Every structure is written in structure tokens, then in C-alpha cells.
């Protein structure tokens, strides 16, 4: 039985114990209800209802069908409604993933503004500094800060560039020399950002000159805030995004190192599963995110 209509009609007759009552609820005629039930009984090869002059009741087969089909139809209707909701640009569930340091600074204001604009959207937000596999994780949009994407199995949208600098607390230079060139950096004072045991390599460029420095410090972490706290305590220098360090630089708690030898900026990118076309709600969030970032956090980012 491919058509769910006769099943719905039968279930309503069973609930009302009346063809006339079911017709009233369904907004149709008793004759149409009778024909729909007859089609279902013919398709199943079973009598489902017992008709008397005073009431209608189910047969044993009808009672079994009613018990099983009621739950199935409720699940079917719930799934259909969820799909319908998620096809709308202003309601449904949206699953987001963001880096820890950026998420803690950006997401509270972003989420509050988004909820005010779209009160019928349910947000599920996960923060992690691990580069997730968007094909494996339950995620509709992943906010990422990284080098230019090389993975061709996903689709992505560059939002802006993320400036970064090597920073150190003034106290560090009481025990190590302040470098004037990348070659003068004390590599054992360099703290590494990374997800593996491999130390980080910093790349500097000035005009046509390019220098690389491999950090030799004894700390490697995949969290920028932890590295920044170590920097504040004079425990070394680290290459960090400006959105982590800008307040400390402004207050004098830390200072930038080798300003005339800039390092390449990172990209702030939105990653998506390989949609053929962005779902309307994902497209809504994408546009909102870009506008919010430019209006509220432009000082720590660069738009090309």
C-alpha cells in the first residue's frame, strides 16, 4: 500500500468509532471515508472494521494494524516536519563547530544576536581546536582558522584573513636577547602551536627575503589561550592570532616581536559538507556570520 491516505482514514475511523465522526474530523464525506477503508481492506486482504447500526469497532487484524501504524505514522509525520523545518531559511536545527579560542571570544555575542534575529532556530555548538573531519562529525557549518584549504572533498567560503604576530612579555627579554632578525630568535624560548609532537615552524618574510625558524621550546599545545597565558608569565614567545593578543599588546602586558618581518596571515573560513546547494538555513547563518564579524570584530581581522 503506497498511499498513506487510506491508512490515515482508517486510523481516524478507529479513533472515532464512527465513519461519520471520522468524515467530520477529516473534512470529507462519509462515503469517501467508506471507500478509503474499503481500498485498504482490499489491499491488505483483511477485514479491519466491524460495522453495526450503533458503532464501528476494529477486528483483531484492525486492532493490530491500528496499534502498529499509529506509531509509525507519528514518526513519519515528525520526520517530515523536521525536514520541512530545515528547508526553511529561518527555522530548524543548526549544528556549528568552532575553534576554542575564537569560539569563546566570538560565539557568545554572535549567538545572542543570531537568536534575536532567528528565534525559531535551535543551535548546537561544539568548540574544539581539533581539525574535525566534517564528513564524519555531526556538523552543518565548521568555522576554521587555518592555512588556505587544500581538501577538495569539502566546500568552503573564505570570510577574511587573520593577522598574527610573535608576542612576548617584556620580562622575557630580561633573560634572553631581543631579536632584531629571525636568525637572532632564541629557538628554545619559542612555544609551539600544534596538534602533534612536531615543533612549529615560523615563516617570516621581508621584501624578497624569507626566513624560517623552528621552535625548540619544550611546550607544544593545540590551544592558543594556554600558550598566551604562558607568554604572559614570561615563559616564552609564541606566534598567535591578533584576536588573542590585541588587548595584551594594547595594555603593554605583551609586545610584538619583529614587526618588520611579518608572518603570513591565516584564513578564517566556513567549511561545509559537500552540499550540492547550501541549505537555506546554512546560507542564512553564513550571511549573518560574515556581517556580524565585520561589524563587531573587524579590528582583529582583515578583509581583502
TrEMBL record:
PROSITE patterns from the UniProt entry: HTH_LYSR
Sequence ranges assigned to domain HTH lysR-type in this UniProt record: 1-59
Domain of life from the UniProt record: Bacteria
A GO biological process held by the record: DNA-templated transcription
A GO term, aspect molecular function: DNA-binding transcription factor activity
InterPro entries for the chain: LysR-type_TF_proteobact-type, LysR_HTH_N, LysR_subst-bd, WH-like_DNA-bd_sf, WH_DNA-bd_sf
Family annotation (CDD domains): PBP2_CrgA_like
Protein name, entry field: DNA-binding transcriptional regulator, LysR family
Amino acid at each position: 500500500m503506497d498511499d498513506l491516505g487510506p491508512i490515515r482514514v482508517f486510523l481516524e475511523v478507529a479513533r472515532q468509532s464512527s465513519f461519520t465522526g471520522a468524515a467530520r474530523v477529516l473534512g470529507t464525506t462519509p462515503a469517501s471515508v467508506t471507500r478509503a477503508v474499503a481500498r485498504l481492506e482490499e489491499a491488505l486482504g483483511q477485514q479491519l472494521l466491524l460495522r453495526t447500526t450503533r458503532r464501528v469497532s476494529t477486528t483483531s487484524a484492525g486492532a493490530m494494524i491500528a496499534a502498529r501504524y499509529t506509531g509509525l505514522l507519528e514518526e513519519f509525520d515528525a520526520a517530515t516536519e523536521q525536514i520541512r523545518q530545515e528547508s526553511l531559511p529561518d527555522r530548524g536545527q543548526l549544528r556549528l563547530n568552532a575553534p576554542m579560542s575564537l569560539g569563546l571570544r566570538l560565539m557568545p555575542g554572535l549567538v545572542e544576536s543570531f537568536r534575536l534575529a532567528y528565534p525559531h532556530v535551535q543551535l548546537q555548538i561544539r568548540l574544539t581546536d581539533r581539525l574535525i573531519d566534517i564528513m564524519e562529525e555531526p556538523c552543518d557549518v565548521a568555522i576554521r582558522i587555518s592555512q588556505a584549504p587544500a581538501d577538495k572533498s569539502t566546500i568552503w567560503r573564505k570570510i577574511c584573513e587573520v593577522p598574527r604576530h610573535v608576542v612576548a612579555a617584556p620580562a622575557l627579554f630580561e633573560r634572553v636577547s631581543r631579536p632584531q632578525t629571525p636568525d637572532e630568535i632564541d629557538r628554545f624560548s619559542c612555544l609551539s602551536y600544534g596538534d602533534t609532537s612536531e615543533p612549529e615552524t615560523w615563516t617570516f618574510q621581508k621584501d624578497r627575503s624569507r626566513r624560517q625558524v623552528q621552535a625548540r621550546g619544550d611546550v607544544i599545545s593545540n590551544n592558543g589561550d594556554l600558550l598566551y597565558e604562558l607568554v604572559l608569565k614570561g615563559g616564552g614567545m609564541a606566534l598567535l592570532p591578533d584576536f588573542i593578543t590585541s588587548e595584551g599588546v594594547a595594555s603593554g602586558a605583551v609586545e610584538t616581536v619583529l614587526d618588520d618581518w611579518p608572518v603570513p596571515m591565516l584564513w578564517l573560513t566556513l567549511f561545509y559538507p559537500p552540499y550540492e546547494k547550501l541549505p537555506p538555513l546554512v546560507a542564512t547563518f553564513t550571511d549573518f556570520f560574515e556581517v556580524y564579524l565585520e561589524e563587531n570584530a573587524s579590528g582583529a581581522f582583515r578583509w581583502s
